Amino acid sequence: MLKKVLSIQSKSDIKYGSKPRFDLDLNMRNYIKSVLKSNRIYHYEDDYGNIYAIKGKADLYNCVVAHVDTVHDIEEDFEIRREGYFYYAFNKITVSQVGIGGDDKVGVYIALQTLLSRKDAVKVVFYRNEEIGRLGSEYSIKNHKDFYKDCKFIVQPDRRGHTDFITYSGGVKMISKEFKKDARKIYKIFDYKDEKGIATDVDVLVKNHVGLSCINLSSGYYRAHSSTEVVDIEIVDIAYKITNMLFDNLIKQYPHKHVPKPTTWGNSKYNYGNYGGSELFDTFKTNAEKKSVKKSDDTAESSYGLNSIVTSNNDFELFAKLEKYNYYKLIEDDHIIHMADFERRNGSPVTPSCPKCKERGTIYFIPNENEFYCISCNDFVKGIAMDKVLRKHLFIEDNNIKFYHSKAMNRWIHEKDAVWDINLGTYKVK
Fold this sequence. Notes:
By secondary structure, the chain is of the alpha+beta class. Helices cover 24% and strands 27% of the residues.
C-alpha cells in the first residue's frame, strides 16, 4: 500500500497565475475513498473536499490526520523505484529523479493502514491544500469541530526525518503536560525527542480550540519539497508503530486548552526547530546505500528547470538577474509567514532554495525578527540580493487589498501608500 500511495500524484490547487487549476489532488482522494469503500469503512466528504472516516463505535476514538496534497508538479511519466530501504520517484521521459511527495503521502498511508489494521474505534481526516496555507484543516475545524470532540488526542505523521516528536508548532504549544509525560515513555524507545516545528494541520486545530493534545511525527521522508526527496521504508514503519503504541497505551482523553499569546514586535529570539539537514544519512544502513542515494542527489537535475537559461551557485542572485517571475505569494500565520512558490509567467511554479544549504521550500519570513529564516539550516538567512529581490515581492492580502512590508519600519504598508526604494531595498511610505 505504501508504494501504491506514493505512486499517486497529488498537488495543491494552483490558485494564482494565468491558468488556475483545481482538483489536482483528485486521484489521491478517489483512491482513499475506494479503499474505504472496499473495506466498508464509513466515510464522507465536507463541502471543501476533506474526507472523514470513522471505524467502529466508542466513547473515545483514536484519531489520525494527514493531508493529501504535495508541492510537486504532476509529471507526465511518473514511476516509483526502490533503492535498498528507500523509495524515490523517477521520470522516464526526462530521465531524472523527481519529487516523490512523501510530505504527506506517507501520512496518508499511515492513516489508511491504521484504519485497516486496528480493531478498536478510529477516526481519520484527510485534508486538502495543506501546502498552500492549511486551508483544508482550517475549513474542517471551523465547520466540523464536533467531529473531534470524542477523540483521545490527534496524531499527524507530517514531519521529515526520523527523530522529531513535534509538541510545539507554528508558535503554538500543542500538548498538555500529562500527555507529554505519558507519551514520552513510548517515543523515547525509538530515540524520538521533543522538537519544535513551523506549521502543519494540527496546529491549526489547536489554534482554533479543538481542545485536545495534538502532535506531529517524523515519518521517514527526507529532502522534502525537492526533486531528490526519498522515503525510508523502515522509518515509515517506526512512525506507524509509534502511532499505534500511543493509541494502545494512552487510553484516556488528553485535553489541552490553547491560550493565544499577544503578538509582539520585539527582537526576542526563537528556536524554530530542526527541520532536517545533517541528519539525512543517519538512518542509511550501509555505506553503499549512502553513496547510492547521495549520488542520485548530487546528479539530479535542479527542480528549478533553469539550467538552460543561466548557471549560478547563488539562487537569489540568479533570481535578481532574471525577469521571468512575477510575484511571491506569502501566507501569514501569526508571527510566521511561509513563503510559497514563485510563479513563472508560463504558469510553471518554481520553489526558491536557501543559498546556504540549497534546500527548497524551507525559507520563511519572520516579522518579529524582520528577517528570513531557513528551517533546514535552523538559522537566519542574510544577503543583499534577498533583501532587494525577495522583499520587493513580500506581501499579505486582506479582502483583495495588498499590504507590503517595510524593512526600515518593520510594519505592513497599504499598497496605495507603499513605494519601493531600489537603493535601500525596502518599501517606504509615499
